[in-house]
Specification:
Bound molecules: nicotinamide-adenine-dinucleotide
Distance between the termini: 59 Å
Number of domains: 1
Structural class: alpha/beta
Radius of gyration: 19 Å
Helix content: 40-55%
CATH architecture: 3-Layer(aba) Sandwich
Order of helices and strands: EHEHEHEHEHEHHHE
Strand content: 5-15%
Number of helices: 8
CATH class: Alpha Beta
Shape: globular
Amino acid sequence: MGSLDGRSALVTGGSTLIGHGVVSALLEAGAEVTVADIDEAGAESVLSLGATFAHTDVTSDDQVQALVDGMHERFGRLDIVVNLATVYLDRGIETTRAEWIDALNVNVVSMAMVVQAALPLLRDSSHGAVLNVSSVSSKVAQPERWTYPASKAAVVQLTRSMAMDLAPDGIRVNSLSPGWTWSRVMDQLSGGDRDRTDQVASPFHLIGRVADPAEIGSVAAFLVSDAASAVTGADWAVDGGYSAMGPEQSVPAIPQLMA
Ligand SMILES: NC(=O)c1ccc[n+]([C@@H]2O[C@H](COP(=O)([O-])OP(=O)(O)OC[C@H]3O[C@@H](n4cnc5c(N)ncnc54)[C@H](O)[C@@H]3O)[C@@H](O)[C@H]2O)c1
C-alpha cells in the first residue's frame, strides 16, 4: 500500500526537473498526478513519468477552473495541491511595476487562486493537503533580487493564513523551502555541469552540494501524506543546511585572529 493510494494530486509548474522530482514521488506513493503548466515542451516528459498533463496558465481564473473541473470529471476527487509554478522575473531595482505585478501574480496570487478553485473538492477529501513551494530566498537578501525573495516570503505567510482558515475543513497547508537544487535553470546556466554546480554551492550548504529533485520530492510526498497529519502552517527547509549556517559559514573564524 502506498501512502497516497487512491488520491488525486495537482502539481502546478511540474514540467521541469524539480517538478519531476515531486511528481515522481507522488506517483510512487500511489497518487494519480495531474501537472498544470504552460510549458508544452515539458508535456512529453510529464506523460512519460505516468502523470497527466493539463495545459493551464495559473494566472487565468478560467483556465484554473477548467483544470479543477477536468480533474473532478476524470478522477472524481482532488485531495492534494502542490503549488510549484514560479517565474524568476526579477531585475532588482530596475524591475518595472508591470514586471512586479506579473511576478507576484504567478508566484503568490495564483497559489491562492488555485486553492480557492480547488477548495470544494479539498473539502470533500478526508485527506486534503496543500503544499506551497517557497525558497531559502524568502529569508535572506540576495544581490539584485527583489521580486523573487519578496514573493517567496509572501508564500510562507500565505501558507500560515491558509492553514488557519482551512483547518476547520480538515485541510492541512504547509510550505517547503528548498535551497539550491539541481534544476532546469542550473542545468542551463552551468552547461549541464553538476560537479561545478556542487562546487559553487558547497560553501553555503552544509551538505556540500545542491539537492537532487528527488530529495525535494520525498519531503513533499511526506508532507501531503497522513504521516504528517499533525503538521500544518509550517515551513519545511529542504535546503541542505543553508538556513542553519550563519555569516561565518562553516569555516572556524576564531583561528584567523591568531594567524
Ligand atoms: N531551482 C532552485 O534551486 C530552487 C531553489 C529554491 C526554490 N525553488 C522553487 O522550486 C520550484 C521550481 O523551481 P524551478 O527552478 O524548477 O523552476 P522552473 O522555471 O524550472 O519551473 C517552473 C515551472 O513553472 C511553470 N510556470 C511558470 N509560469 C506559469 C504559469 N503562468 N502557469 C503555469 N505554469 C507556469 C514553468 O513553465 C515551469 O515549468 C519553484 O517554486 C522555485 O521557486 C527552486
